[in-house]
Amino acid sequence: MGTQGTVREDQVVMEADPLFERRQAKGRAAYRVFASTVFVGICLIWIYRVSYIPRVGERGRWVWFGMFMAELCFGFFWVFTQSLRWNFTRSYPFKHRLSQRHEEKLPGVDIFVCTADPVIEPPTLVINTILSVMSCNYPTEKLAVYLSDDGGSDLTFYALLEASHFAKYWIPFCKTNNIEPRSPETYFAHNSNEQQFTNYQEWSDVKNLYEEMKERIESTMERGSISKEIRDKHKGFSEWNQNVTKNDHQPIVQIVIDGRDETAVDNNGYRLPTLVYMAREKRPQYSHHFKAGAMNALIRVSSEISNGPIILNLDCDMYVNDSDAIRDALCFFMDEKKGHEIAYVQHPQTFNNITKNDLYANSYSVANKVELAGMGGYGSALYCGTGCFHRTESLCGNSYSEDNKLRLDTNYTKKNDKKTVNELEEAAKIVSSCSYEKDTLWGKEIGLVYGCAVEDIVTGLTIQCRGWKSVYYCPNKEAFLGVAPNTLEVALIQHKRWCEGLFQIFLTKYCPFIYGHAKIKLGAQLGYCAYLTWAPISLPTLYYVIVPPLCLLHGIPLFPQVSSKWFLPYAYVFISKTVYSMVETSACGSTIKGWWNLQRMWVFRRTTSYFFAFIDTIIKQVGLSQTTFAITPKMVTDDVLKRYKQEVIEFGSSNTMFTIIATLAVLNLFSFVGAMAKRVTDLEMDFKTLEMLMPQVILCGFVIMVNLPVYRALFFRNDKGCMPHGVMFKSLVLASLACLVPI
Ligand SMILES: O=c1ccn([C@@H]2O[C@H](COP(=O)(O)OP(=O)(O)O[C@H]3O[C@H](CO)[C@@H](O)[C@H](O)[C@H]3O)[C@@H](O)[C@H]2O)c(=O)[nH]1
Ligand SMILES: [Mn+2]
């Protein structure tokens, strides 16, 4: 009796233990006090601007108004960013409890990997992602992996076939030896000579198999076509006839591995996960809606084949770095008390090619560790397009409702057990055709939302506004790792796309203040706006890096003089913000140089990508152009890669963005040098005027410091990554003209 009693008690405790926990971060109160003092400083700055407007006829009256507008915008933007820090919480799953309680009834998980172009996104990269998910620590009969190929390329299909063969070696190798990460490329690159490996023979066999496969895929890529010998080996190749082009072809669905098939086993005799290739139908007369369209086709295709209640969405470059990632995420969905409210669990976007000092500020360490966690604190984590686990029903447009507690369908039912592979493929082709969505709510209320370059963010918002909660989970060990842009141009183009999409959300019916009103918390609405208003913040930034230096050159003071009491709020806001961001960035793992690089990227992005995005979004809203999607290249030449690794900024392109960057850098230099020269030669110049111009000297000096690599690229470098001469010429002319404009 005694023992039995204890057992039962233990069980009761176990049942009550939650599968995840949310903890508030320490030091919130202190932070709130600090933020309030900064806010007081900002208000004083506004008061100063209003009280000291130059009188009619005085120099710089209009410029002053501009300064006021800029500072007003910066202030509001700062308030948005505060809401991300106000309610900062972290989530922690307990995966051992999940295994204890639910091992037998784990749900089926459908994993979607999207690729769009075999050249920009090489098939070897794609299959590494596929292999890493196939070998996750999860019951294989409950896993189904789908590759959506918007490139519609038989080369990608071929690589997937190769991967399906190699998986028979790779999966058991990973599982019996418990190796990490399970992307073969990364694993072998980091374990190039595994002496301690117990079974060295096995290790080198698998490595050789991988190398050989890679070699075959790469040589096929070089040739650009599939040999007849290979084509004859799989019926799937018959889909690629003469008429198939990237943007014009019939739907192609191939079940490469049928997980139901008991003979589809790996080398240890264990069942393999389902593996499906899909190239949805594309026709020039139909808009394909980029990644959102691909995802929606995948949702329908998977519902025909495996119909898992959970979907994991990954970009083709995001391999699984922690093979327990699925289990961690399920803790949130399967928690007895709160799990039923949760629509999705988002992981941060992390990358495996960040340089030591994060040259292009791609690590997003503060966003990942602080800001997005802050959104999670409101139960409104952003959906970021990759590394996100979805509840299928919420992604499919269902609303959350309290009295209709929807729980996960944990009984793994094979609704399509009786259909043959052929029948499944035919059914899947129907739902992945262009006309299928005609006159349906797909892209509006069902699936991912169409018409926005950041389909992920807007879709996440609509899910939250249907009553669901979302979780942000940032584990210590990154669950997924991808490829970050490794040239400046690519980094800026990526930001332009994001920024355009984000601002578009702000301007349309999806604006969080309207669409989210009374549906998501006010903090979350403000938090969304910290991202959605990136584009307009370009205007005050441009103003600040153009007008004060020109006024410095012309001797017009725009700030209170250093000895005035009004200078204090400026100094306080500037210094406290700078020091705080330095501390925050370092606490999130960046170096000081990394922080400095972030400041530079912040100037570059705001004056180029965000500004262009602002203009393009306006043009789009007026109806003059359509949404586009510039895919981020994942590979660069060795020469470029070498400079990236040495942290030398890559400017070698005549993109207009670079002309702007160069012009602003030169303009600030001219103003600074010009003003100094005047002070030296002009004897009338007294100390008073110099003191009045001091804040502008500091500001201008700061911009010059940030731009040091730009001057180097303009005047001193001669490698292929330096600024092209055309850009240099244009920037010198434009900056000189600007200096001549009378104010
Ligand atoms: O027509 C398209 C275009 C893109 N993709 C895929 O979408 C993913 C993301 O594209 P990428 O060029 O890598 O853009 P990123 O800026 O790196 O992507 C981020 O931002 C996008 C929104 O702008 C989100 O969709 C992504 O998930 C998110 O990682 C890749 O797997 C592509 O293959 C498609 O499937 N079809
Ligand atoms: Mn990407």
Automatic annotation (TrEMBL):
It comes from the Eukaryota. Its main location: membrane. The chain crosses the membrane at residues 29-50, 62-80, 651-673, 693-714. It is a multi-pass membrane protein. This is Cellulose synthase-like protein E6. The keyword Membrane applies. Pfam families: Cellulose_synt. It is found in: Endomembrane system. It comes from Hevea brasiliensis (Para rubber tree). PANTHER family: X-BOX TRANSCRIPTION FACTOR-RELATED. The keyword Membrane applies. Keywords: Cell wall biogenesis/degradation, Glycosyltransferase, Membrane, Transferase, Transmembrane, Transmembrane helix.
